[in-house]
Amino acid sequence: MSFFDKIFGGKDNNPEHQSFWKKIESEEDLAKAIEASHHHKVAIFKHSTRCFISKTVLKNFEKEIDNLDDKLDLYFLDLLEYRSISNKISEDFGIRHESPQLIVIEEGKVINSASHEDISASQIS
């Protein structure tokens, strides 16, 4: 890994390598996440893969979530690649689009959302 990858988040910091993330890559994936929220809390992390701030927030969040309840599904949305799904989340739940953004859903409704430096595992509890 190069010096710049260590500073700016190279491929080893890619959320696809983290086993706890479930990807949202289609409206069907989003529907499954919302359905799962009727059984336990669901959190969606909307991430901009080109943004240094988003990479930093994601990295810090991933460090925090090790101590979370196992009855939680964590979903990852690459909002640059799947912007239409990000827009659908904003429209369907009536929340403003931000990046990075953490959205917590329970019983099919948003119970908490945070963006930028306000994102923390404490939003899920």
Automatic annotation (TrEMBL):
Top-level division of the source organism's lineage: Bacteria
Matches recorded under InterPro entries: BrxC (IPR022551), Thioredoxin-like_sf (IPR036249)
Which Pfam family, an example, fits this chain?
A: BrxC
This chain belongs to the protein called Bacillithiol system redox-active protein YtxJ
Q: Which gene encodes it?
A: ytxJ
